[in-house]
Structures are given as structure tokens and as C-alpha cells.
Automatic annotation (TrEMBL):
Keywords: DNA-binding, RNA-binding. InterPro entries: HSP15 (IPR025708), S4_RNA-bd (IPR002942), S4_RNA-bd_sf (IPR036986). One of its GO terms (molecular function) is ribosomal large subunit binding. Residues 107-138 are annotated as: Disordered. Residues 12-73 form the RNA-binding S4 domain. Residues 118-128 have a biased composition (Basic residues). Transmembrane segments: none annotated. The keyword DNA-binding applies. It comes from Thermochromatium tepidum ATCC 43061. One of its GO terms (biological process) is cellular response to heat. Residues 107-117, 129-138 have a biased composition (Basic and acidic residues). This is Heat shock protein 15. Belongs to the HSP15 family. It comes from the Bacteria.
């Protein structure tokens, strides 16, 4: 199904818009989310090349957070976060749900996932101090 666009400036690829609106750090991450079924347009699962226009309704699920937004503007360039926020309008219910989830996670003390990889030099020194201290106590 090919979409016909009367004015190409009125539409943009979904993956490019998600990147420009700063929902994803790279277009590749946006593509992976779309292909993984984490992004819906007007209630339907779509492909990254789907053209969206102002007025399109998006559902975006990222980690444990979700957004229900309406596209307000099109921008092909990635701009600062303050400008990117002007590209969409989030529904009040979606915003309140997300804020409540963030508040609950903060109260429960659910921290961000731990770093992966090798310990830093500072971490190694702390580990060494801890293990040396532990040996002298016992």
C-alpha cells in the first residue's frame, strides 16, 4: 500500500520523526522499536517508512514508560529538547500515568540498571579497600 502525498513537506517517515522529536537517540533505535511493535500509529502496528502528518496519533512504549501523543508539527532535523517538545502534544491521561509510574519507582527505590562492563579504576580501589578491610576484621 503506497501512500500518496500531495505536499511532501506535510509528511515525514515515522522513524525520522521519532528521532527528531527526541524519543530515541538514533534512527536505528527508532527503527528497532517500530519493528518490535513498540510504536503504533492511529492504533495500528506500522513500518518505519510509514509517513506521518500533523494530526497523526502515536502510541510509544519505551522501557516501562508509554506516551500517547498527537503529532503537531514536522521537523526533519533534530533540534534541542525544548523545540522537539513543540512537535507533539501528549494527552493529559498519558502524562499523568507516566508521572505516577515515575513517582512510584522513585518511592520504591528502583534504581536505574547497573552499568555493564569492567569496573572503573575508582571502583577497583573501593573493592580493594573493602576486601582488605574485611580481611583485617575477621
Amino acid at each position: 500500500m503506497t501512500e500518496r502525498v500531495d505536499n511532501p513537506a506535510d509528511a515525514i517517515r515515522l522513524d525520522k520523526w521519532l528521532w527528531a522529536a527526541r524519543f530515541f537517540k538514533t534512527r536505528q533505535l527508532a527503527i528497532e522499536a517500530i519493528n518490535g511493535g513498540k510504536v503504533h500509529v492511529d492504533g495500528q502496528r506500522v513500518k518505519p517508512s510509514r509517513l506521518i502528518r500533523p494530526g497523526s496519533r502515536l502510541e510509544i512504549h519505551k522501557d516501562s514508560l508509554s506516551w500517547e501523543i498527537e503529532v503537531r508539527a514536522i521537523n526533519t532535523q533534530r533540534r534541542p529538547a525544548a523545540e522537539a517538545a513543540l512537535l507533539y502534544a501528549e494527552s493529559e491521561a498519558s502524562r499523568l500515568r507516566r508521572q505516577e509510574l515515575v513517582r512510584e519507582r522513585r518511592e520504591l527505590g528502583v534504581a536505574a540498571p547497573d552499568r555493564k562492563g569492567r569496573p572503573t579504576k575508582r571502583d577497583r580501589r573501593r573493592i580493594q579497600r573493602f576486601t582488605e578491610h574485611g580481611d583485617s576484621v575477621g
